[in-house]
């Protein structure tokens, strides 16, 4: 039962393999953080988590209903920052083929509790199998590259959605339907050293750019981070990261450094 349960920091990671600790490195962590800033007498609490369960009974298929929760709030001596509060629900259906291609379809419903907005969307992601058959590229599987081990993943994604209720969101105010398409790229690196400390370190970077076919604007997001695994199986990590960009559904912007406790299953 436990190998079917999923706990991650984003929807894309719900479908990734978890057969080994190296596979788990590619999974984005669910995050919990608390920051106390004594310069402006503020406190910031943040949590991001997506939980799902894979009901599929065959190895090359996945069916994962999930729920997601994102919350960020800053308390300070003056008026509190409303921050972020989003709840989402949906499912991922995925199929992997002998050609190494894979296709994932995700219906999704998102509620922004701060701006009282609601969005329904459909994502379709394709992994180009021909790239994963090139042995020289670390696509999907880890490859040694000098003192490091590298792994890359690439998807082409199409997104279609409808803003059911924009609420008081300025980003969604003039949006009804939208359609975007573009790439999503991820890279993980970790040392080959057998040193007890170095072997628990890893670094990652990700970039997404979805071009507007219809709707208000392109959506771009990128981030990078350094991780230290508290456990040898890589389920619990301490992470320091930076991210900059827009949320794919609500278009809410983020630009922040984070020191967090990460958990992934």
Compact summary:
The chain is mainly β. Helix content is 3%, strand content 61%.
The biggest beta sheet is recorded as:
12 strands, antiparallel, barrel
The value of Rg in angstroms is 19 Å
- Regions with little confidence, pLDDT below 50 for 5+ residues: none
Structural class: mainly beta
DSSP summary: helix tally: 2
Percentage of β-strand residues: over 45%
What is the tally of beta strands?
Answer: 14
Helical content stands at under 10%
CA-CA gap between termini: 12 Å
What would the principal axes of the Cα set say about the shape? globular
Oligomer: single chain
Describe this structure in words.
This protein has two helices and 14 strands. It has helices at 21-24, 129-132, and strands spanning 5-8, 30-37, 42-53, 61-76, 81-96, 102-112, 117-127, 143-145, 148-165, 177-191, 201-214, 219-229, 236-246, 253-263. Strand 11 and strand 12 form a beta hairpin. The radius of gyration is 19 Å and the shape is globular.
